[in-house]
Amino acid sequence: MIAAGGSGGHIFPAIALGRSLSALDKDADIMYIGSDKALDRRMFEKEGVTFRTLSANKLAYKFSPGMVIVCFRLLADIFKALSMVLSYRPDVVIGFGGYVSFPVILAAGLVGIPTVAHEQNVMPGRANKLLFKFVSKIALSFEETKDAMGRYAGKCVLTGNPIRSEISKSDRSSGVKRFGLDGNKLTMLVMGGSQGAGFLNRTFIDAISMMDPGSKRSIQVIHITGVKDYGWALKVYEGLGIDYRVYSFLDRIEEAYAPADLVVTRSGASAIFELAFLKKPMILIPYPYAMSHQLDNARIFARRGAAILAEEKGLNAGVFSDLILGLIKDGDKMKSLGEAAHRLAVGQASDNLAREVTALKRR
Predict the structure, then answer these.
(1) pTM, whole model, 2 decimals?
(2) Digit-coded pLDDT (tens) for 248-297
(3) Helix axes 230-238, 198-209, angle to 10 degrees
(4) What CATH superfamily classification does 166-344 receive?
(5) What is the DSSP letter of 123?
(6) Angstrom distance (rounded) from CA 191 to CA 247
């Protein structure tokens, strides 16, 4: 049983693990547990897997009147997860962090089923922190995470962050053709995660608008805006004098990775490890409100020379424009970023995790 939901960043590695488990054991029977968000349903249905859902509840950051509702939903989800575990009777339960993992891992622990918590970020999230005491094993994406694990360090194993096999199935030329782009121009991919990113979208578009006509003619953009910003962003691009492709969302994000020569993105673990595996140079603009998880991720990549970190604080269109132009004029720098990023990715991460999971299977 694999618990992952709420965003593509949790679900993509879960799907990669499921595939590796199936390859390792042809008779493997896998049940996914996600949230009842439309995004989760769409991704699991597209993959053609068996899945069940819990609520899209969120663990509260601080006390408020709404916490009463949150607690009732959590209690209901724990009982629902317990029912799922007892009826499915999994050999092992794996959680990829986020709210959905909490009731599922807790329910499995209550009935003595071996459990694994996968921590994608450098610094553990709230749900995983609450679960570390109960799980059998903790799988890590970053080697630096172990330093923050204290008494739980003995449970830790570095597996890497699982990467789906289709990530590497498309090259630049086929990607250029897929989007109808010019193979002689530098292609920038801009994305803010499955929920979009208003600040990133606005600041990038303003930065492009400040560039001279010659610079604009030398680049082309694939911009995934999220649903909220799609309408206005498309209208602005129409008058920018640049080749562009704008989407609110792409189900097959790997198709947009392929033609990209430079990527501007948030620093969720799943996305940056997929891009790192493909040796893509990145400018990382961390989401600043998620307990600094994305900032910590980006700092590790920047410290290793694997990405350029640009925090929202102090970033404006002029600074961003200069940063972009400076990079695209320095081919050696972009190559160096991509190669350093690739050294942080673990291509066999899903197989590593699958072996750890299988080793816990009850005899």
Answers:
(1) 0.92
(2) 988 888 999 999 999 999 999 999 999 999 999 999 999 887 567 899 99
(3) 0
(4) Glycogen Phosphorylase B; (3.40.50.2000)
(5) S
(6) 10
- Domain ranges for the chain: 2-163+347-359, 166-344
CB of 223 within 8 A of CB of 204?
Answer: yes
Question: What whole-number distance in Å separates Cα of residue 234 and Cα of residue 231?
Answer: 5
Nearest to 250, CA basis, from 234, 267, 227, 273: 227
Residues contacting residue 324 through CB under 8 Å, at least 6 positions apart: 188, 207, 208, 262, 264, 283
pLDDT digits (tens, 9 = 90+) for 193-225: 655 589 999 999 999 999 999 999 999 999 999
The structure tokens listed for 357 are 């999971």
Q: Which CATH number fits domain 2-163+347-359: 3.50.50.60, 3.40.50.2000, 3.40.190.10, 3.40.50.10070?
A: 3.40.50.2000
Q: What's the Cα-to-Cα distance from 290 to each of 57, 71, 73, 194, 322, rounded to whole Å? A: 16, 21, 22, 15, 28
